[in-house]
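DM from R.C. (forwarded with permission)

"hey, sorry to bug you on a friday — could you get me a structure for this? deadline for the figure draft is monday and I only need the backbone to look sensible"
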Amino acid sequence: MNALFVRSRMPEELGFLLKQHPRDSWRSSPDLTSMGRFWLKRHNMFRELGGALSGSILQLKEDTFNPQTFAQWFAPRLNFLLSELEGHHHIEDAHYFPVFVSAEPRLKRGFEILDRDHHHIHDLLERNANAGWAFAEALAQGGDRMRFAADTYGGEADHLVTGLMRHLEDEEDLIIPLLIDRNESGQSLM
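My reply, with the result:
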């Protein structure tokens, strides 16, 4: 099993900045940069949208949506989540992570872990996309095909959301304290 689904947080030795700038102090910190606030907003959007897509299957099964209305709601949100996550991870890997490692080399291992997460999440996104589009097609047919496709997509969505939640929290635990720490000392990274 991938480490993304095994770990409960980043390795202890990578939490030295998080100890100085614990999660419950971030929102009130005058040193939380606009980049840090943006990062948290993006992550919260991913959490909300991933949860909505995952939870929507239960609503469909409970007949709170009709299949046609559901398809109109579902398809654009699935597409948005998949494309936004892919783009977000690409920018992090290509630009932000190297800047952060350069600013704090002791966090290099953490950013390597996050980079490996991105590769695994990419695979999960592909599986989610395939299951999601098969589900969207099955919505028009209804019946057993729709129910089986809903179950398949629901499993893929739950798996993606579980891994994504772990990854987002771990990423924030490295990046937000680093941004606060460097801004506090007058060395703003962004």
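R.C.: lifesaver. Residues 127 and 150 are 14 Å apart (CA to CA).
me: no worries. The chain has one domain: 22-184.
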